Amino acid sequence: MDRFINEIKAELGNNGDFHLQRDYLADAAVMLLGFNTLIDFIKTRTVLHKHAESILLQNQPSEDLWGAIGELMEGDVLKAISSIYEGKLIIHFENTSRFIIMEPVPAMLDRSIDSPTNENVIQGALDSFTEGIDINIGIVRKLVNSDEIRIDSFSAGRSRKNKLSLLYIDGQADIELVNSIRNHIEKNIQMEAYNLQGLAKMLGFPSWNAISKFNTTELPHHAVQNLRKGKVILFVDRLPFALILPSLFWDMFAAENDRNFPLPIMLAIRLIRIIGILITLITPGLYVALVSVNPEVLQIQLALSVAQSREGVPYPALAEIIFMLLILELILEASVRLPKSIGPTITMVGGIILGQAAVEAKLVSNLLIIILAATTIANSTIVGFQNSVSIRLFKYAIVILGAIFGILGLVAGLVFLSAYLASLNTYGKSYLYLNVKGNENNGG
Amino acid sequence: MHVMLMYVISHLGLIFFMYPGNVISSTEQGHWLPVLLGVVIHFIFINIYMKGLSYFPKKDIIRIYAGIGKGTAILFIAPVFLYFSMILLITLRAYAEIITIVFLSKTPLWAIMLLLISISTYIAAKGVETIFRTGLLLSLLFLPIIIFIFFTSFQNVDWRYVVPLDADLGFIIKRTYLESFFAFSGGFLFLGFVQPYFSYDRKYILWAAAFLIPFFLFSVYIPVLTFGQATSATTFLPYVVAVDAININWLMFDRVTMFFLLSLISFIMLYLALVSWKAIRILSHYLPSIKPVKLLLALAAAVYIACFFIPDWKDVEKLFWWNTFLRFYILIAIPFSLFFFGRCMKRKGIDESI
């Protein structure tokens, strides 16, 4: 045992999966070091030996072999240790301080490319991104297939390095945007970026934004289309989706897969989504406003039937709607939490509450159930889960304003929301632009 | 595009409330003449104003006047600031009153004013780009409603009320007619403030102004055509009453007025935001040490408190009337002075180059 091995052992010996194996390559006795959880040792050794054999058969000196299998280093123990942590194999020559860092056959820790789990696609490509950053970049490369794609890689974080990659198409992407993203990443390279909040902090976005600055997608086709339009993709290792920057308002309505339909159908689908967002925002507030503040707006028959449906309901419309919306949110949250096998129970129980029981117990009105159902359904038409969550939140602001000021409050809420959306921007790109190359003439 | 939209919506917000009443009560027949006169004057002044501004590319009017001299700055900028504060005060108070009258009779006035001022202050605090983008979103949302209701308001029209067409010029000196210039002079000044942020084509602004002509004309004529001059002169907000008379069977709502008014009020909020932004631009130019946001909050608070010193509608009208003199001063002095200084500059420039 020489000094080099001892130093590494002192550092890594208390890891149960640290593997040390003696082997002979060509004419040298070597030690193979690495984690057997990250490295497929059997396959790696087979590869190594085949390599050695083929070099020896051609009567080349063994120095050539070392050069061919990896990076030859001398003495740097710390480098060896950090390479082992990164999943590399260290081949150490006994009784020297020389070693080789080799890219081994990795243990299969990534799932294979699957169909998307959070975004459904009808009539379109069914592959999706996975957790491995290299696989994701590979998928994008396969789809773009152009010499103009640029990939910048960073590794961020203090204790554990996490890989980040920035992808854009040269000539399409706005170079200022790319530079500001790159500068922010380089400046904050010490920050941890395992999740979107951390990443947002790293990129200098305010953390109190109700709308996500990232447009996340699992679908490679969607991501690549955005890339072609001049947007920028960020990949974070271990996050199974692409982060498209900047996120724009129009992204709530337009999915790339729409273009697999005829143009009129596509326009109709997008119109439905626009109506969906309006219904989500307006109907709960309108209900409260009409019932509690401005019933005279309705035609008399309608006002009477609304009043009739609320007969016997013991509390004001605001309490009624907040109560039911809360239950609805609880159901939504619960169905995310529960395992798939118990999930249907929640659907059933929720269906009973939101269906007949609450109405028959005279706790809420019939009309409210219809409005809640419409709201929830409409909310789901929005493209991108992170967008629909934001809209879900804004709905409450409008409900409360509507309860105080009636329809005036509703309108004030919409004005406020418009102003909020209008004030958002990502490095100077307004949230309301229709595309990234927008100037003041084509966007909001 | 933005500037054009903003121009249209800030005027639409002003047209439909006070303007018809003022014009209708200013003359008994031939209402087209007062409207047309107003429109023509409006056109002349915005033309001169924009011409004047075009001598100073990429500069807003604060810097133009400040560049000319201290005296001019005081002579022109101070009244403009005063005028803006007055507009804020009057608009806020008047519209809160209108809202109470038309549909929120139980809600206290202070709550409505608080809502209006806080939203417009929020928008103003976010800056001019937000104001303009909000304008775009709001016009996408509400302009269709306004145009739809504008067309349905022809429902009860009796065209025989158009006659007699002949008109005399007696209305010019009437107080109500002079007050009606509120609708013309309120919005145009912002063209001088947006220069460094947005560029615009003069032609488009004129198109926008032309687009507004039918609204000016019919906001007056629809009440007249619906009720006749004698009746509509007695109503407080003639156009609103005329829209209230609309009955659309297939729509589930009885009072379409509500939606019309509210769409207009959303534009008014934006207009208030724009005016407070302009006022703050002036203030922060002279008080650069204080943060604009603080100035804005102070201004909003001052306006809000001042509103409580106006006990009822009569005082609003009195204030409105006092403001008329200031309004004409602004309407005439600012465009002409800009034009004049612009010409001087140009001539001087030519002399020097020779």
From TrEMBL, chain A:
Claim: Transmembrane helix is one of the keywords in the record: yes
InterPro entries for the chain: Spore_Ger, UPF0353/GerABKA_families
Pfam family, one: GerA
Taxonomy, superkingdom: Bacteria
Record keywords: Membrane, Transmembrane, Transmembrane helix
Compartments where found: Cell membrane; Membrane
One GO term (biological process): spore germination
KW Hydrolase (keyword) present: no
Predominant place of localization: membrane
Family per record: Belongs to the GerABKA family.
Protein's name according to its UniProt entry: GerA spore germination protein
Record organism: Cytobacillus firmus (Bacillus firmus)
TrEMBL record, chain B:
Membrane spanning residue stretches: 6-25, 32-50, 107-125, 131-151, 181-198, 204-224, 259-280, 292-313, 319-341
Species of the source: Cytobacillus firmus
Gene Ontology BP, a term: spore germination
One Pfam family recorded for the sequence: Spore_permease
Membrane topology summary: Multi-pass membrane protein
InterPro entries registered for this protein in UniProt: Spore_GerAB
Keyword Lipid metabolism (UniProt): no
Signal peptide: none
Family: Belongs to the amino acid-polyamine-organocation (APC) superfamily. Spore germination protein (SGP) (TC 2.A.3.9) family.
GO (cellular component) term, any one: membrane
Key words, A-Z: Germination, Membrane, Transmembrane, Transmembrane helix, Transport
Coiled coil: none
Protein name per Swiss-Prot or TrEMBL: Spore germination protein
Compartments it resides in: Membrane
UniProt main location, coarse: membrane
